Amino acid sequence: MTTAMHLSSQLAVDVLDARSLLSAFGVLGVGVVLFAETGLLIGFFLPGDSLLFTAGLLCTGAADRGLKLSLAPLLVAAAAGALAGAQCGYLLGRRAGGSLLARSRSARLHEGARHADELLERYGYAKAIFLARFVPVVRTVLNPMAGALRVPVRTFTVWQVTGGLVWSMGLTLAGYALGSSVPNVDRYLLPIVAVIVAVSLIPVASELHRSRRAAKAKAAAAAAAAAAAAAATKGARE
Question: What is the DSSP letter of 40?
């Protein structure tokens, strides 16, 4: 009975909580979660950003004395999961087209697909693939969308690898650096993760704001030109 209860407690993992995932699966779990989040549409809800940061923090032993990860294997697992997942998502999209996304009823997933489509349309393949790494849900759906749109394999691979390494290793090393330099940093873990996620969205938000301003300016110029043409036509008739 005691053994069964112990096993049950071990299997009770909160997939939305980074510490719970790391306590249950360790370094291997990081690679698996990142693969699922970036390669499989069903993994769009997984906590990639907070998982990487928390895992880096745990490498110092600062956040939880009962759990300490090794930095080198963690970096390898994180990079491998992120890169393999994105490439898998691309290949699935290339084979299945948009049917995978069409079957989903998740409003959040479809919202992410809309943002991914905007990134691809506004910024081109390279920039969109790189930026998508830093946006939750978008980094899940952009990979199969890129495959369905027949983005060249070379272009996709180069930029998903670049973005994947910057994202996975950057957040992991940020957590490690903070845990090594700030005592009792675990007390501030939740607000720190929130700040990390917010900062990661700044480049995309900046690009969206710039594009919208440019689109408004272009629309205003077109309206002014149309008004001038109409006035000129009216004057000619009179």
Answer: -
